Amino acid sequence: MVTMGEAGSSQARSLPVVWRPVTIHGVSRITHRRAGGAALLVLAMALLHACDHRGSRVVSPAGVVWDRITPPEATEADRPDWRGDSITFQVSAQGLDRVAVAREDGSGLEIEPELSAAGARSPRWVRGGLLAYSSDLAGSEDLWYREVATGRTRRLTAFPGMEWTPAPRPGSPGLVYVEGVDPDSGRLVLVPDTSAAPLGKIYLTPASLHAGEPDWSPAGDQICFSTREPNGTSQIWRLSLTDTVAIQLTVAPSSSPPGVPQLDRGPKWSPDGSRILMASNRGGLWGVWALSPSGEAQGLAVIAQDLPGSELRHPTWSADGKAILVSTNRSGDRALWKLSHLEY
């Protein structure tokens, strides 16, 4: 039996976790059609600056269309979340992190105000009109709710330590978040019921796994997340709430270029549950990849790669899975771009 600690209690207990890395026999298999496309992309990326530029639109050699959707006033646009015809994301305003909302095409931008010098980070939709995010408004980094229409906020957690990057559980009042001093490298914690008083919490991963960026499967029974490895690489893992077995899905090659560790990060489950989206710098270029939930040996396909020198972060799906939103500095400043005309 798992005993859930009360809010602010040190009695929260961890579920048993088994680490089961995927063993790759030989070179990781990439879909052949996509492997050829990836090679063409690498050869052609240097030509992208002269390839069909129409304002803020770029057509990649693979046919994927990139459209910038955030205006310059949405400074350092990052960590997007897409629900229906609305998006939410993190921006910087006068050097402080803020939550922003807009329509899916970037219009109707609203940057949510905060009191004093408090920051607000990593927003996610709980449902239409309601956001979960983290903020240091009360001193420590805690999880908060915000009603978009009224601006009303409510503090959700007041645990010791710091809580980051909330991911609401589909079809449930629960959520998972990262506990620790680093929002992308800590312990995954499950709050089974956000309506309970006091709140309970269950540790899903040990601190030694350095987990971050959690996201739920559509059924709400599995979580994908990234980890930071001692060798500087970052990998994607998956954990089931049924057996709490943590399974490594991606594996860094043993012969990475010196000083360029492989980084797989920002996983997001597809709306139909068949794929996990991730950002990766494989091949020396940042890009968006589709990963099988069973591991890269069972399916790994490049969707699109960014320009040389650009850094792509935090891809997320549209509700129908036909478009992707990413944060990238390909235009010089960090902005949100929509990828459409996808083939994978």
Automatic annotation (TrEMBL):
Gene3D superfamilies the UniProt entry points to: TolB, C-terminal domain
Name of this protein:
Dipeptidylpeptidase IV N-terminal domain-containing protein
Q: Which superkingdom is the protein from?
A: Bacteria
Which species is this UniProt entry from?
Eiseniibacteriota bacterium
Family the entry assigns = Belongs to the TolB family.
